[in-house]
Known about the structure:
Blueprint: H1 8-19, H2 25-32, H3 36-48, E1 68-76, H4 82-89, E2 95-100, E3 107-113, H5 116-127, E4 132-140, H6 148-158
Antiparallel strand pairs: 1-3, 1-4, 2-3
Helix pairs in contact: 1-6, 2-3
Amino acid sequence: MAKFKLDEIDHQILDMLIENTRVPFTDIAKKLLISAGTVHVRVKKMEDAGIIKGSSITLDYKKLGYSFIAYVGIYLQNTSQTKFVLERINEIPNVTVAHITTGKFNIFCKIRAKNTEHAKDVIFQLDDIDGIYRTETMISLEESINDKKRLMHSIFNEM
């Protein structure tokens, strides 16, 4: 597949969509002084090229009562159990992210919970999965940086 070439208009469209995925194409068009049809065509091309994959919303988990964040490093008895363990982890809705990793842990997860008691229950669910040898948990005191736009701008500057 040929590398898709983004221009400055594409960068600006992506910038606005990352800020708010629900922004109408007509609003983007007005700000960029182009037609809404042009925005639609460019977004469609970026979707077809796999640069844009769906859209999402950002939830305020604190307002929903899930302000507790912890990271759990998982040690497996055998690396051959990775797929099985990930399938079991996927059944626990409070595990919001899971990575297969190198180094200290075989799998590294992010969990969201209501409080420490709830987090303990989630961690115990992880511990009960066949194939997990042990876990190591780190509590997040504060999410200080969560900014997709900085990386996006850095990527654009490299192009």
